Amino acid sequence: MTEESASGRHTAFYERALELLTESGTGFLIGGAFAVFHYTGIRRDTKDLDVFCRPEDCPAILKFFAARGYRVEQTDIRWLAKVYEDDLFIDLIFDTPSNIGRVDGSWFDHCVRGTLMGLPVKFVGAEEMIWLKSYVQNRLRYDGADIQHIFLRYGRHLDWKRLLERLNPHWQLLFSNLILFQFIYPADYRGIVPRWLISELMNRVWSQYELPEGVRPVCRGPLIDQHQYRIDLDEWHYKVLQI
Predict the structure, then answer these.
(1) CA atoms of 103 and 17, how far apart (whole Å)
(2) Structural contact between residues 148 and 181, judged by C-beta atoms closer than 8 angstroms
(3) Is the pLDDT of residue 165 over 90?
């Protein structure tokens, strides 16, 4: 099979999947590489279609596709299911492995409308994209460049207050990405990132020094990489801190 024919198979499958998702009557949002393209213009070869839905809607979507001859799978009951057509598939995502990013109605309130393969769709909001990608920092995959490109290409349209609300429990992740953005794009930074946000985060950094030392050693590393921080838990006796 040629590369062109393989691409054609993927496109035809995605188009049919989008049509069936719409026909199912359940709410869904498009994320992943197609959403990154929508916000940044960066085109990337992708082997799957990332579809976000509410946890309560996922069983109905699986049942709908199964009734039409597709193979369905509950890949990880915490956050992921799949729909297959031979070797092609779509991901149905309703949470994150650490249960930080559960899809709910607010995702749909702040989604962005657009088109994909000529079909009207709703994309995951840019704030949610940055929020989720902030936790993908492991040895095999790092989504930091996507965050930086969304800042650059879509930052002037971001709801920065809502982004801070999303990452408020782990605001250090947002701060680290903003400092990296200043490093990567020094000529663009001040025109995109509001001064009030940096002031707020800097104040939080300094306030950490005013707190008493923790009694127990804790590690948030597993929230961004569940493998490379295993030694902290298994041998160094750290506890996972979820907040």
Answers:
(1) 20
(2) yes
(3) yes
What phi and psi values does residue 88 have, to the nearest 5 degrees? -100, 150
Domain final position from 100, 124, 148: 124
Same domain, 132 and 187: yes
What pTM was computed for the model? 0.92
Check pLDDT > 90 for residue 211: no
Q: Which residues contact 66 (CB under 8 A, 6 or more apart)?
A: 72
- Work out the number of other CB atoms within 10 angstroms of the CB of residue 234: 9
Residue 1, pLDDT above cutoff 50 = no
The β-bridge relationship of strands 218-219 and 239-240 is: parallel
Whether 156 and 220 share a structural domain: no
**Structural contact between residues 133 and 224, judged by C-beta atoms closer than 8 angstroms:** no
Domain of 140 in residue numbering reads as 127-211
Do 160 and 231 reside in the same domain of the chain?
no
Ramachandran area for residue 27 (φ above 0: left; ψ -120 to 50: alpha; else beta): beta
Which residues in 18-36 are b (16+ Cβ under 10 Å) and which e? Answer: bebbeebebbbbbbbbbbb
Does position 213 have pLDDT exceeding 90, yes or no? Answer: no
Angle at 12 between CA 7 and CA 14, to 5 degrees: 95
Which residues fall within 8 angstroms of residue 218, CB to CB, at 6 or more apart?
A: 238, 239, 240, 241
Q: How many domains does the chain have?
A: 3
Q: What band does 242 get if pLDDT is binned at 50, 70 and 90?
A: low
Q: How far apart are CA 233 and CA 224, in angstroms?
A: 14
Domain match, 156 and 201 both: yes
> What is the reported pLDDT for 239?
87
Assign 3-class secondary structure to 92-118: EECCCCCCCCCCCHHHHHCCEEEEECC
